[in-house]
């Protein structure tokens, strides 16, 4: 029955009655690596067309959140070394976890989010140059008309030697990023761009655009560095690339 709940109702239930959902789906088949809890299935999620078995009942993480958490936990010192962190549009899956990390000097920012410590425009940030060891800005740039300016601002406030993880929805079968501002119908934009408020579909050239800003970019294909069994158990999107950017 849970898999047939309409998306808007599902989202409200997920936030309000998360413990009930987690209990109802308790099992051993799939595990959320963020909190280690296991379930017989995850929940469906998606804008328009839903993806089955992707939303964790406990942390509300999606595939990209779990992949990022695995990478940070297993391949970086994010959870152990002192870090000054700037987190754009903080995700529910991470917010409390990162806020409670004693090693992190953690600041959140967004133009509208109630979780933002600093209300700010990503294209005109109120921070000094070279301030942050780590920047997390995930599934934000596809909403920004002037993503070049946003990338320049991210580069500016990152410390030399710092790391920025800049995940985006990406079509790896597409060589060139696609945008078309003449499409104004919201339903048509959602059909073409994935959401009505996305302004482009990033292709493989996304990584080179980041490099043109000055970043050194590692195209981290982390799902191919863990076993297929873990990819399935953690409900990850096989082949999803984490853009790990260094200054």
Write up what this structure looks like.
- The protein is α/β, with parallel strands linked by helices and 247 residues long.
- The chain folds into two domains: 2-60, no CATH class; 64-246, Vaccinia Virus protein VP39 (Rossmann fold, 3-Layer(aba) Sandwich), CATH 3.40.50.
- The protein is built from eight helices and eleven strands.
- The chain has helices at 7-16, 18-24, 63-75, 92-99, 147-157, 186-193, 206-213, 228-233; strands at residues 26-31, 38-39, 43-45, 51-55, 83-88, 104-110, 118-119, 132-137, 158-165, 216-220, 242-246.
- The protein has a seven-stranded mixed β-sheet with strand order 7-6-5-8-9-11-10. A two-stranded antiparallel sheet has the order 1-2. A two-stranded antiparallel ribbon has the order 3-4.
- A hairpin with a 5-residue loop joins β3 (43-45) and β4.
- It is globular, with a radius of gyration of 18 Å.
- Mean pLDDT is 91; it is low at 1-14.
């Amino acid at each position: 029955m849970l898999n047939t709940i309409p998306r808007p109702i599902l989202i409200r239930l997920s936030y309000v009655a998360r413990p009930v959902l987690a209990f109802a789906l308790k099992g051993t088949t799939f595990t959320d690596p963020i909190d280690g809890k296991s379930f017989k299935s995850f929940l469906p999620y998606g804008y328009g067309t839903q993806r089955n078995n992707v939303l964790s009942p406990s942390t509300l993480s999606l595939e990209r959140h779990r992949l990022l958490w695995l990478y940070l936990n297993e391949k970086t010192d994010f959870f152990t070394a002192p870090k000054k962190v700037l987190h754009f549009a903080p995700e529910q899956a991470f917010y409390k976890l990162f806020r409670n990390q004693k090693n992190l000097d953690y600041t959140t920012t967004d133009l509208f989010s109630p979780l933002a410590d600093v209300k700010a425009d990503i294209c005109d940030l109120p921070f000094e140059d070279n301030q942050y060891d780590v920047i997390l800005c995930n599934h934000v740039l596809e909403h920004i008309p002037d993503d070049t300016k946003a990338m320049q601002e991210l580069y500016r406030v990152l410390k030399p030697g710092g790391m920025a993880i800049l995940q985006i929805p990406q079509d790896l079968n597409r060589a060139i990023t696609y945008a078309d501002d003449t499409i104004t119908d919201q339903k048509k934009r959602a059909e073409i761009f994935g959401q009505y408020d996305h302004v482009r579909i990033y292709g493989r050239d996304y990584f080179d655009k980041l490099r043109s800003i000055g970043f050194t970019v590692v195209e981290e294909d982390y799902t191919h560095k863990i076993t297929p069994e873990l990819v399935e158990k953690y409900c990850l999107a096989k082949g999803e690339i984490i853009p790990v950017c260094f200054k």
